[in-house]
């Protein structure tokens, strides 16, 4: 056992990263697991037959575009903060917040489109699943928007700059993750419909 | 120069310590962020719930063992749940079984076991001041507390608590008109479990972050005590499996309260056809058991970790196969996620799929057997010291073997057709998961009580407690195997009406009597626990002569654990009876350069490096000081 211990251990601190950032990653793991469970439940249930077929709302293409664009804005804000470009930071954050809210409104209209198609939350699980996917994702996205707004407020108080990036980094990570999660869900629905 | 800097640390830490004493009752005992106090909070709540869960089991054991007995004397507690003849209400029997399972699995053996010892031991054994986030840790306890309050309330509502079994399978649990327990009791169950999962995730994120990020100098992963490895992997399992239970519960909530049909299809109840169509109850089973099976290891791994530590310490020998222990725990962690469908062999699942899950299940026997082998070989020719903690650890190994062997039978999809949902299953998991983990919990309490409360528990009472419990557990669960093979189904209120079952009435009486004695023996422990907390013999700093870091703290460690600097770690945690050493243990904080007489050849090489490093550090300190 002992042969393999590198003596380097003595001097260097053990591998570690910022505890809060690390905890955020672990939180994202739990979110991944919820959606992994949901989407595999979808596949298992679909394979059993008695599955209602309907068209996916076209607005999903638009909302997917919006969510990508908001990530671009946020990334711009992140780079600006690194260079202490306060205006760019605020534009990036505000753009991401506005587009995030636009995304949520778009998701709402996807439900309207579903109702127009006579696909309801109550009924064949094929429709119910879509409501659960979008609803649960929207819930997480709302938490992301709140996070962004908090960071936006602190950017107006000059609390975000190249020397204080932790919150900005965490917000950017979480937001990209939520965008990626939506793209995964959308692709999953396109492929398994 | 370096002494001066240490002295500085000392005074500042001391100020800090004094400050802690000024904390009032609320910040010290209720809304505390100190991991040690949070661990104790989990322990006390765990004991409370273990009493309730045990009491419920005694109630239904009375019904099973003595079906004709009048329970009139329990009317003050049970009230309307007894009929005029003093017999237990059949629907309440179902509720008792359900609540016993839920409470024991989640509140006692998950929160009470890993909640207590992960919180208490992780920072102490890895050399950290506290958890990564004390606030999240506090939230974790209070979420658990609220979950407990809701579950407790559900015991007293008119329709009774949830009664669909601890697995709450739909459609039984999804339809309010199915049984009384599927009404408000089920709603409270789901709400309580949601809070419970939130608590577990908050705790788990904290444990993992702490183990990875806050280890002290020199504490590499290959020097972690096996307890920490076990808690770490337990937290990883929880982090990956509890969200899946959230998904399952969420869909169940939608089915119950919003009228969706995820799990419901084509049901006629009370002559009425329900509108639900297209759902699949087996879907719930898949989702549930994807948590449910890893949950078994969430319950068991911490107990195994505690056992490794206690057995090595009290055999005065290094743990046999340290690395093999870690690898087998990793193996169990991974395998635990790919065996869930062995709970569903008779659910109408494709038999081919069944045989795949059978093979995967049987593979778990390999790492489990490696662990048993390592425990036995650690004990082999050791200088055994039979403290109560040691006895409970050996008891755990015994249950792990006897209960694990029946697992090989149950894992076979063909034999499972006969044994599924019989008392054989009940006997199996009560030995291997229930009793084994419970013994791990008790071993942990006996072993770390001196650290927690600064006093020793009474050994004689500990021995009496051990022998009554150990013999009692076998008396309760061994006969159950026979009852199960005979075909007795579990969760049935009464089965004496069948001829084949009649001849087992005596055996059931025996089991019930043994259960009552075993339950009564726990009060010896309770007395010992609370009495020793105030009146026990004062503990020495390292009563078990153990190597790990927690024994280098003061007798009553303050918030921050070590006054002054956190100790550095120079060696692995199992240097017991090292040839050539003066004492039969060398703490992790002793540098190799201080023990030339016992160093192995390769360690002698490392000493040179160690000296250079120390010299560098010294110079670094001098340079820093002169900068000021």
UniProtKB/TrEMBL annotation, chain A:
Pfam short name (any one): COX3
Principal location: membrane
GO biological process, one term: aerobic electron transport chain
Membrane topology summary: Multi-pass membrane protein
Subcellular location: Cell membrane; Membrane
GO CC, one annotated term: plasma membrane
UniProt keyword annotation of Transmembrane present: yes
A GO MF term: cytochrome-c oxidase activity
Residue ranges crossing the lipid bilayer per the database entry: 22-44, 59-79, 91-109, 129-153, 174-191
Annotated Heme-copper oxidase subunit III family profile domain residues: 1-193
Family assignment from sequence similarity: Belongs to the cytochrome c oxidase subunit 3 family.
The protein, known as: Cytochrome c oxidase subunit 3
Biological source species: Algoriphagus halophilus
């Amino acid at each position: 056992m002992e042969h393999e211990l590198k003596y380097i251990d003595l001097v260097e601190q053990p591998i570690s990263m910022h505890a809060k950032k690390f905890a955020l990653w672990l939180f994202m793991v739990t979110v991944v697991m919820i959606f992994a469970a949901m989407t595999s439940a979808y596949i298992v249930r679909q394979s059993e037959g008695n599955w209602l077929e309907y068209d996916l709302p076209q607005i999903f293409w638009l909302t997917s575009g919006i969510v990508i664009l908001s990530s671009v804005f946020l990334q711009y804000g992140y780079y600006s903060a690194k260079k202490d470009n306060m205006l760019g930071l605020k534009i990036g954050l505000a753009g991401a917040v506005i587009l995030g809210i636009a995304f949520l409104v778009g998701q709402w209209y996807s439900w309207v489109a579903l109702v127009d198609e006579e696909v309801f939350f109550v009924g064949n699980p094929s429709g119910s699943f879509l409501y659960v996917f979008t609803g649960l994702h929207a819930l997480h996205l709302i938490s992301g928007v709140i996070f962004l707004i908090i960071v936006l407020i602190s950017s107006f108080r000059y609390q975000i700059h190249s020397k204080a990036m932790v919150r900005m980094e965490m917000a950017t990570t979480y937001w990209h993750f939520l965008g990626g999660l939506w793209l995964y869900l959308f692709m999953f629905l396109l492929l398994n419909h | 120069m370096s002494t001066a800097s240490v002295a500085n640390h000392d005074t500042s830490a001391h100020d800090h310590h004094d400050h802690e004493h000024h904390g009032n009752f609320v910040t010290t005992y209720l809304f505390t962020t100190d991991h040690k106090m949070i661990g104790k909070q989990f322990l006390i709540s765990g004991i409370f719930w273990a009493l309730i869960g045990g009491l419920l089991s005694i109630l239904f054991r009375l019904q099973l063992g003595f079906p004709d007995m009048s329970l009139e004397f329990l009317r003050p507690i049970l009230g309307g749940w007894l009929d005029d003849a003093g017999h237990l209400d059949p629907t309440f029997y179902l509720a008792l079984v359900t609540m016993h399972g839920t409470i024991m699995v989640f509140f006692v053996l998950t929160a009470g076991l890993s909640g207590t010892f992960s919180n208490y031991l992780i920072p102490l054994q890895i050399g950290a001041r506290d958890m990564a986030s004390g606030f999240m840790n506090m939230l974790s306890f209070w979420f658990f507390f609220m979950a407990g309050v809701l579950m407790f309330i559900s015991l007293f509502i008119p329709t009774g608590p949830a009664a669909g079994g601890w697995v709450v399978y739909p459609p039984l649990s999804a339809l309010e008109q199915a049984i009384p327990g599927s009404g408000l009791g089920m709603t409270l169950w789901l709400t309580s479990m949601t809070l419970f999962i939130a608590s577990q995730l908050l705790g788990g994120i904290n444990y993992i972050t702490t183990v990875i990020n806050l280890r002290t100098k020199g504490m590499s992963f290959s020097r972690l005590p096996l307890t920490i490895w076990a808690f770490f992997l337990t937290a990883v399992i929880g982090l990956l499996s509890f969200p899946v239970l959230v998904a399952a519960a969420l869909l169940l909530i939608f089915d119950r309260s919003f009228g969706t049909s995820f799990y419901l299809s084509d049901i006629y109840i009370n002559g009425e056809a329900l509108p639900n169509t297209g759902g699949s109850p087996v879907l719930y089973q898949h989702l549930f058991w994807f948590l449910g099976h890893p949950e078994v290891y969430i319950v068991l791994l911490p107990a195994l970790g505690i056992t490794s530590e206690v057995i090595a310490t009290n055999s005065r020998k290094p743990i046999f196969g340290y690395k093999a222990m870690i690898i087998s725990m990793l193996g169990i962690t991974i395998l635990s996620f790919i065996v869930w469908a062995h709970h569903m062999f008779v659910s109408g699942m494709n038999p081919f799929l069944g045989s795949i899950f059978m093979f995967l299940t049987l593979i778990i026997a390999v790492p489990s057997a490696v662990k048993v082998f390592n425990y036995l070989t650690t004990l082999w020719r050791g200088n055994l010291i039979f403290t109560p903690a040691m006895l409970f650890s050996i008891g755990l190994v015994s249950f792990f073997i006897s209960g694990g062997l029946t697992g090989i039978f149950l894992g076979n999809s063909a034999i499972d057709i006969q044994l599924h949902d019989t008392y054989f299953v009940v006997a199996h998991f009560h030995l291997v998961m229930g009793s084994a983990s419970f013994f791990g919990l008790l071993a942990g309490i006996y072993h770390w009580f001196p650290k927690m409360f600064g006093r020793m528990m009474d050994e004689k009472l500990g021995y009496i407690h051990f022998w009554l419990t150990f013999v009692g557990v076998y008396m309760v669960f061994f006969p159950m195997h026979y009852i199960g093979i005979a075909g007795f189904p579990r969760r049935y209120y009464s089965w004496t009406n069948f001829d084949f079952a009649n001849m087992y009435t005596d055996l059931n009486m025996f089991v019930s009597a043994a259960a009552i004695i075993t339950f009564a023996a726990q009060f010896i422990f309770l007395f010992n626990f609370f009495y020793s907390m105030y009146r026990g013999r004062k503990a020495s700093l390292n009563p078990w002569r153990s190597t790990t870091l927690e024994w280098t703290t003061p007798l009553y460690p303050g918030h921050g654990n070590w006054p002054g600097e956190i100790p550095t770690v120079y060696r692995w945690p199992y240097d017991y009876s090292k040839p050539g050493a003066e004492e039969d243990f060398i703490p992790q904080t002793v540098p190799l350069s201080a023990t030339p007489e016992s160093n192995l050849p390769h360690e002698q090489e490392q000493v040179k490096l160690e000296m250079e490093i120390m010299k560098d550090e010294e110079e670094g300190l001098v340079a820093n000081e002169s900068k000021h």
